[in-house]
Known about the structure:
Blueprint: H1 2-7, H2 17-27, H3 30-38, H4 51-64
Helix pairs in contact: 2-4
Amino acid sequence: WAYQAQKMNIILLEPGDLESAISATTAVGDDTLQKEAMGYTVPDSFTHGTAAQRTYWFRKGYESGDIRQGDPFNDPDLN
C-alpha cells in the first residue's frame, strides 16, 4: 500500500516515515507483545508473525510494490 500510494502521489513520505512504519511492525510482532506481557515468548502460539517476519514482509512489499511478493506460502526464499 505505501509503495503504490507514494508512487501515485496519494501520500508523500517524509524523512522518518519509513522508520516509523518499521518500528510499528516491530511493536506488534507476537514475540514483542508476548515478551512485554509475560516476560517470555511461546513461539508455538504465534498467530500473526514475529517482529522480524512482519518487518520482512512490510519491507518486501514496500520495496517491490508487487502484491504478489507478499505471499509467504509461495515465497521461494522460504521454501
